[in-house]
Amino acid sequence: MIRVQNVYYMLAYAFQVLHEQGYKNVATEEFDNVAELLSAILCRGVSVQIKRGLIRQYISREEALASPRGKLEIGESIKTQVIRKKQLVCNYDEFSVDAYPNRIIKTTMDLLLRGSISKARKKEIRKLMIFFDGISILDIHSINWDIQYDRNNQTYRMLIAVCRFVIKGLLQTTADGSTKIMDYADDQTMAKLYEKFILGYYQREHPELKAYSPQIAWQVTDGYRTLLPTMQSDIVITNKAAKKTLIIDAKYYTHNMQMKAPYMTQTLHSGNLYQIFTYVKNWSAAPDEVVSGMLLYAGTDDAIQPNNDYQMSGNQISVKTLDMDCDFSKIAAQLDSIADRIK
Fold first, then answer.
1. Whole-structure pTM value
2. Which residue spans within 36-157 are E strands per DSSP?
3. What is d(CA 27, CA 12) in angstroms, rounded to the nearest whole number?
4. Could you tell me which of 57, 64, 76, 82 has the C-alpha nearest to residue 136?
5. Cα distance between residue 289 and residue 226, in whole Å
6. Is 14:73 a contact under the CB 8 Å cutoff?
7. What is the rounded radius of gyration, in angstroms, for the C-alpha atoms of the chain?
8. Residues 42, 46, 48, 51: what is their CA dihedral angle, to the nearest 10 degrees?
9. Treating both helix axes as pointing N-terminal to C-terminal, what angle do 328-339 and 187-205 enclose, rounded to 10 degrees?
10. Which domains does the chain carry?
């Protein structure tokens, strides 16, 4: 389990902008569920963005106008018979606040208003919605999350990430079309956040180390890699001075152990173990570089949690559990102790 309050810290490290002053007061509040927490974060972020100014983009418009502008669509004007009304169909670009990122934010806030969050939070959202007057609402099932960020809209990165987290992980549409907010996000959504949180933590708190997520090339003897699957690491921490590298594969499951027949004994997930072993053995190590691997599971309510170190073919492979149901200072201490392994 993960404490609701710790989801804030996970977001803070995964998307570094939460360390800004505008968000910090969220960390001192108490929340009953993740939906309430995300609503608070979104409200803080949108408030800050409104003060900065909502972005504007050129939006293509096509409509019948009495005073023509832009490109005249004569064929469409004749087809729709708007000429009888002394109008012409015009196609023009308008520099508008109805930009796509603003549409995503308004759509998310509109959904939260129909969900089961507190009245006080809904009141806060309604006040913010006033500033989104004239902005369109999107179909949540067809939102394009592939937004290109630049210096003009960089501040939207965190806001859109929270919106995606809400829509993908917390909101479900019921049979009658109403919106229901789950108490917790689905495993896939949380797994991605868990991975980004660990990487972001090491990047921010351990600048003396290099933390990144590179692809690992297959160490084939004939150079032929066609059809081989991509090995995308979650987190790699390198200490160049000590010539040590730790490859971490972050795992977020409901159950961290698997049951094996016929006696229903609990064992480690074999596929995960094969995966991290393969990553370690294919790492292009420098001379005298010590490479190790770790499966880092988020703690669950199960009685047995992985906590072992193994020596395999000259490399240490560890299987550890990160307890997320505790004060964040203890979580940080656990992550720091992992970093100490390569110092």
1. 0.79
2. 57-65, 71-72, 88-96
3. 10
4. 57
5. 28
6. no
7. 25
8. -170
9. 70
10. 4-55+98-185 (no CATH), 57-96 (no CATH), 188-342 (3.40.1350)
Tokens standing for 128?
A: 């913010």
Q: Tokens 């001379």 label which residue?
A: 287
Tokens found for residue 292: 């190790």
Helix, strand or coil for residue 132? helix
Instruction: Spell out the alpha helix ranges (H) of the chain.
Output: 4-14, 21-24, 34-52, 74-80, 100-113, 119-129, 156-165, 187-205, 270-282, 328-339
DSSP H helical ranges for 53-155: 74-80, 100-113, 119-129
Contacts of 75 (CB under 8 A, 6+ apart): none
User: Cα–Cα distance between 42 and 110 in angstroms, integer?
Assistant: 12
What tokens does 210 get?
């290099």
Walking along the chain (343 residues) 10 residues at a time, the average pLDDT comes out as 84 76 71 85 92 86 76 74 79 83 96 87 96 92 89 87 82 52 63 93 96 95 86 97 97 82 75 95 95 96 89 96 94 97 94
| Residue whose entry in the numeric block shows the structure tokens 């960390």 | 27
